[in-house]
Each structure stands twice: as C-alpha cells, then as structure tokens.
Amino acid sequence: MIGDLMTLPSSDCVMAEQLCLSDSTCNATYRILENCALAKTRLLSLDHDSRVRCLNAELDLGNSSLLHCKCHRRMKRQEHCLRIFWTVHSSMTDGYFNLETSPYENPANEERWKTDYNKLAALVSGSQLAGDATNPCLRATHVCNLSKKCFRLRTDYASICTKGAGSEDVCDRRKCHRGLRNFFEKVPEDFTKRILFCPCQDEFCGERRRKTIVPDCSFQYNTKPNCLWLLDSCLEDHICKSRLADFQQNCQPVDVSPDGCSVHNHAACLQAYMGMIGTPMTPNYVSNSSVAVSLWCTCENSGNQKEKCDQLLSMFESNKCLESTIWSQMHLKQTALERQEDLLYSSSLSFQGDSASTSLSSAMSQVAEGKTQQDSPKQGSMPMASSVYSGTATSWPSLALFLPLLLSPH
C-alpha cells in the first residue's frame, strides 16, 4: 500500500498526480497503471499476468488521494484531469456499462455561479423584446443575447456548426462539438437550462428548441450509425467517456422510485444530460412536437450484441428518471425571490414613448454585464448592449437579426 504521505481528504486528480509523482513508490505504481491504460487505448489484449499486474497496481494505491480524486466541471485542465482519473480506474472500462462512478465532483460541492439572469429576464419581460408570450424559447434566447458571455459563445457555436450548410461542404463536427461544450460549460446554467428545456405549446416553438444545438451538424449523420459504434467512439474519448459515466450515475432509472431516479437529484441529472451535448453521443429532441430525446443511431444489424445496443439506446429513449427530470425543469415555477426581482425591475422601468429606450438603456448599463467603462477598450466589435436602445451610431446589432443564425440553421 502507498504510505500515509499520499492520503488526502480530497483533491482534484491533477493535484493528486503531482503528489504521487513526488513519491518513488507511488510513482512506480502509477507508471504501471499508465501502461495498462495505454494498452486499453490501443485496443491491445492483455495476457493474464498483465491483467493481474494492472489490478494489483490499482489495489496498491489503497486509500491514496490519487485513487479517490475527482475532476471539477469548468476546470482549466479538465481533459488532463480526466485522463489521470481513467488511468487510475482503467479496470472500470472493461464492459459497455461499467461506468457507474463519475469522475466529476458532486455538483452540490461545487461553487454555484452568481448570475444576473433574473434581472436580465425582467428587462426582457417588460419590453417589446419578449415577443410572443407563447414562445418561451424565443424569450430565453433574448435573455441570453443580453449577456455578453451567453451571446458570444452561442454565436460562436452557431457560426461553426452552420458553416457549410446548404452547400456541398460538410460541417466540421469536431469543432461544432467543441463549441457546444464551451457554451454549456462556460455559460451559467440559469441561461443554458432555459434555452434547452423551454416549455413549448406549439411546433414552431418546438422547432426552435430542437434546433438549439444545430442538429444538422452536431447530431445527425446522412444515415443512422449503429449505437454501439457511437459508444465505441465515446469510450475512446476521455471527455465523452467521463460525461457518459456522469450521466449513468446521475440519471440511473429505478422502478421503485416515484420520480424514477436512483439518486433523486434532478439538478445533477439535468447537468449530466447537458454534459453529453458536444460529444460523439450527443442526444437531442426527436421531433418538434415532443419532449422525447434520443441518440441518432439504430440497433439494427447488431447481431449478438442487440441486447447491449437496446440497453444503451433505452438510457435516452425510455429513461423514467431523465423524462421526469426534463419534465420538472420545463414546468419549473418561479420562486418567490424570482417573482419579487421580476416585479422590482419591471416596475422600475418606464416603457412609454421615447422614454422606453432611455429607461431600458439606463437599467441595462447597470445590469447587463455592468462596468461598461472598464469593458469598452476590450469590446471591439461588441459595442455596449445599451446602445441598441439609445440609437447611437455604434450599436450592438439588433437581436432579431441574429435569431435566424442562432435558432434556424439552414
């Protein structure tokens, strides 16, 4: 066993690796595990003695921080951290469905983002930007466009994923997926959840919701591949494999639970589902008139692996936990605090005649990403949001002009 020197209450895997490499015994054990993981990556079959050596090396880590380390969402060296985790836990990937342990820290233990979503939403509610009240997807997009980070990262992935649409060019799916991951990782969930899970009453709204992730590039192929091919692609990628493990852990369905979930944490399941977007196993809505989701794949011609394939597909198509989680988010009611903030900010604005632009502009200068004087040298092609209402020569382009790009790729 590795000595007590290596035992820490908790740490991320990057820190744990550094500590391990400074200890000669742990270092030697870790190198064995690296070779074991490399053999798996190259699909090399290990003989009996090699498998025993790999398992013993994992056991030798004992209670060290390396064996119990986790990775944090949004951390800068996330992919490196995940590589370390799967190096230490390489024996967990022997089968298709042995990924029950997530490499990610429990969401409840991570710092919650502080956002201005409610304030920005109140500005939209009190203005003509709200558009048709029956289209919450459109409203959620307007609110996103008032946040510089949400607007920028949404525009980034929409531009990448729509490139080549309508021509003979093929979109760059890898770059499209990276752009989607950046959006869902770096934009606060107050924005992303409302955009992706907006409740719709008609197919026009449902189409906007379905097209949120630009499915022509990120989701669909010309023909549906076998689902096990998607899984193989996922298991070869540290990020996708980690997101799948997180999804399996937090969206695990059970029949005896009222909500169908084994961990009874809708927030964790929702985060895990969004984490799958931008990976080889990206899920999406299957139609404009339904909230059902699935992978873009089939289990036809699966041979003697048909049962495994069906099991994989059912994780998305007939998952009671996932269904109840999405339903709960779409029917989420405002908290008392949110209603109070909406009332406070809406009542402070005057939307009559010329005073509308002046009042909304003044409020936005304080709310929508604030500190305009500090940000102005960095904005370049992204002028102050307030200028679109004040009618100045240098204005942030009208939000409506960007909706075809962001929501209706061709």
UniProtKB/TrEMBL annotation:
GO terms for biological process: cell surface receptor protein tyrosine kinase signaling pathway; nervous system development. The keyword Transcription regulation does not apply. Keywords: Cell membrane, Glycoprotein, GPI-anchor, Lipoprotein, Membrane, Receptor, Signal. It comes from the Eukaryota. It is a lipid-anchor; GPI-anchor. The keyword Plastid does not apply. One of its GO terms (cellular component) is receptor complex. GO terms for molecular function: signaling receptor activity. This is GDNF family receptor alpha-4-like. It is found in: Cell membrane. The lineage of its organism: Eukaryota, Metazoa, Chordata, Craniata, Vertebrata. Belongs to the GDNFR family. Residues 362-386 are annotated as: Disordered. Residues 13-93, 137-217, 227-321 form the GDNF/GAS1 domain. It comes from Cyanistes caeruleus (Eurasian blue tit).
